[in-house]
Automatic annotation (TrEMBL):
Its main location: membrane. PANTHER family: X-BOX TRANSCRIPTION FACTOR-RELATED (PTHR13301). Keywords: Cell wall biogenesis/degradation, Glycosyltransferase, Membrane, Transferase, Transmembrane, Transmembrane helix. It is a multi-pass membrane protein. UDP-alpha-D-glucose binds at E120, D149. GO terms for cellular component: endomembrane system; membrane. This is Uncharacterized protein. It comes from Spirodela intermedia (Intermediate duckweed).
Amino acid sequence: MAADSTDRGIRQSPALSAARVDPRVHLNRAHAVVYSGAVLALLYHRAVSLLSSTSLLSFFLFLTITVAELVLAFMWALSQVFRWRPLSRKEFPERLPEVVDPKDWPGLDVFVCTADPHREPPMGLVNTVLSAMGFDYPAEKLSVYVSDDGGSQLTLLALVEAARFARHWLPFCRERRLVDRSPEAYFRNTDRDYSDGIKAMYERMKEKVEGVVERGRVIDEDLPEADREVFGRWTSSFTRHDHPSVIQVLLESRKDLDTTGAALPNLVYVSREKNRAFHHNFKAGALNALVRVSGIMSNGHVVLTLDCDMFSNDPQTAQRALCYLLDPAMVTKLAYVQFPQRFRGIDENDIYANEHKRFSHIHPTGMNGFRGPMYLGTGCFFSRRALHELPSPLCSSTDDDDGLADGGGSSSAFSEEAIKMAHEVASCRFDHATGWGSTMGFRYGSIVEDFNTGYELHCEGWESVFCHPQRAAFLGEMPININNVLNQLKRWCVGFLEVAFSKHSPVVYGIRKASLPMGMCYSMISLWGIWCFPIMVYSVLPQMALAHQIPLFPKALDPWFWLYAYLFSAAYGQELVDFLMAGGTIRRWWNDQRMWMLRGATSHLFGVIEFSLKQIGSPAPGFNLTSKVVDDQQSARYKRGVFDFGAESPFSVSLGTVSMVNLSCFVVGLARAIGQRDVERMTSQLLISGFVMANYWPVYEAMFLRRDSGKIPGKIITISALLAGALHGVGFLVLGA
Ligand SMILES: O=c1ccn([C@@H]2O[C@H](COP(=O)(O)OP(=O)(O)O[C@H]3O[C@H](CO)[C@@H](O)[C@H](O)[C@H]3O)[C@@H](O)[C@H]2O)c(=O)[nH]1
Ligand SMILES: [Mn+2]
C-alpha cells in the first residue's frame, strides 16, 4: 500500500476553514466586568446583613440564602469562559475534493449503538444505518458497524433486511442526488409518488421487521436459507446478559454490489460477549469493542459514533468533518469534530428545552467551529489515533501510518482469520483489566461516557472542534414526556458528579492538565447537579419567610433592591440575547428558563441524592435507556405545547410540593402584608414567589385544570399536598415564633 505515497496527503491549496472573532467579544467582556462588580457588591451586602443579624434564626436564614447566592456566583463565573474568547470558524467542504483527492481520503468507520429492540425500534436503527451508508463517500472506504448490546436476533434480522434494501436504496439516492438518505425521512418529506417502486419495497421491509419485533422472535420462514445459519447462535442459553460474541458481515465492499453494479459500503453486525462475571461498562464498553473489531477489519482512520436514533440528515457531513481532520494545522492534536445533537420533529417552542440543554453544555450560542467542545456521545468524528495514543506530531506524509490516508479494508480485512480474531477481541476478557477504558478508547467510570471521554482526551492535550452547519447534520429522537426528559437529565447529573468526584476531578486535575478555561468548563458541567441547591433555596425559603413576614431582601425601591433587580434581569437578559443571536425565539428562551427552574427541583435534586446514596454503597440504576418509541397521544400533546406528566413519578411529587408551597405562601404573605399595611417590606419576596409560580404554571395546570391523561395523577397531588402541609408545619415551628 506504500506505493504512491509521494503524491498522497495534502497539497498546499485553498484553506479548508477560516477563523472569525465574534464582534460581540468586547461587549461580553465589558458586561462581565460590570456584572462581577455587582456580584461583589451583593456579597458585601450579604456579609453585612449576616454580621448584623439579631437572632440565631435570622443568621441561619441569611446564611442559607448567602450560600445559595455564592453557588450562583460561582457557576456564573465559570460560565464566563465561553464568552471571554468567542472565536468561531467556517469550513468549506466544497473545496475538499480540490485539496485532497477522494482516493486519498481516510477510511471512515461508522459506529452505531443500539441496546434494546423494544425501547429502540429496529426500524429506527435501519434508517440510521442506511443514512450513514448513504454518505457521499467512496464506498470502499466506508464501513458501518452496528453494536447490539441487546444481543437480539430481532436487531440482526432488521439489519439483514437493511442490507438487502441498501442494494436498491443507495443507487436510488445517488442517481437522484437526494439529500434525505434516511428512507423514513425521505418518504416523509417528498410529495413524489413512489408507491409502486422503492417505496413499496421499503414499506414491505418495515412491515416485516415490525411484525417480527412484535412477535418477539425470528422463525425460519423469515429468512432465506443463506442467512439462517447465524441465527442458530441464539441457543436456549443465550440471554442478553450472557452470551458469546456474535459478529456477522452483512455486506462486504469488495464482493457486494448494488443493483447498478457499484460497490456497497461494508456493513457489520457486532454483539460483544456478555458475561455476568464482568462489568460491561455500558455504552463505553460497547464502543470499545467496536474500536477493536473495526481495527482488525477495515481500520478506518476516522471513526464516527452515532446513537441508533441519530440519522444522517446531510450526505456531505463527512467532508465537512474532514475539513478539520485533514487540516495540516490541526491534525497533530485534533481528536474529534463534534456536531450538535439536533432533533427530528422538535416543536418550535421546544417546551422541554431538549435542544438547548445540549447546546448549553458546549456553548451558549452553539457557535460554529469553536474550539474545545465536549464530546456529546453521538454525531462525532474521531481521529482513531486519539483513541489509542497521546497527541504527537505525525510523521511526514510519506509514512503509510500517517493517520490520514488509508485505503480502509485490505483484501484480508474480512478473511476467516480476521473474523475469528474479531470475535476474540469482542470478548469480556479482552476488555477486562487492560488499558481499555482508562488510557485507551472510550473511558469507563462514569455513566456519561461521552463527557468523561472528551474530558480525558482534553487533559491529555487533545483538541476538538464544534461543527454546526445550518442544515442539521444529524437528527435524533428526543424524549417528549417530562418523566423521560428528567430521567435522562438525572442520569447525566449522576454521571457528571462521578467525574467531578473522581481522582481526575476537573476542579483540580482538569485545570492543571488541560487549560484554565477548559478546566473551568468541565468543572461547571461536572458540578451541574449543585444547581439544585440555589434553585431549591430560592423556590422555598423566601416564600416560607414571606408567609411569616420575615424579610430576607431589601425593601422595594431601596438602593440595594436595584442591585438585586439588575443582577436578576441582566442574567436573564444575557441568556435572551444568546438565544436570539442563535436564531431562537423569546418563547423558546422562556421555556428554557422554565425548564432550568423545574430541573432544580427534580433531576438535579434527585441526581445529587442518587449520587450521594451511591457513594455510601446503595445500588444505583446505572444507564437507563431513553425510550425511542413514539406514543401518538404524547406526540399530539407535545405538538400542542402541553406538558405530559402522565406517569406517577417522584419528580411530579417534588414539583407538586414546591408549587403548593409557593401558592399558599403567596396568598398568606400578601394578605398579611396588606393587613400590616407594609407591602414594601415584602415586595421582593412577593415578586420571587410570583416569578416561581409563573415558571410553575404548567404544573398548576396539570394539577388543577386538565382532564387528559397527561395531567398529574390525583395520588401525586395528594402526596404533594401532604408534603407541603408538613413543610408548613416545620415552617410554623421554626419561623412562626
Ligand atoms: O449499555 C448500553 C446503554 C446504552 N447504549 C447506547 O447508547 C446510546 C445512547 O443511549 P440513550 O438512552 O439514547 O441515551 P441519551 O440520554 O439519549 O444519550 C445521551 O447521553 C448519553 C450519555 O449518558 C450519550 O451516550 C448519548 O450519546 C447521548 O445522546 C443508545 O444508542 C444506546 O443504544 C449501549 O450501547 N449500551
Ligand atoms: Mn438518545
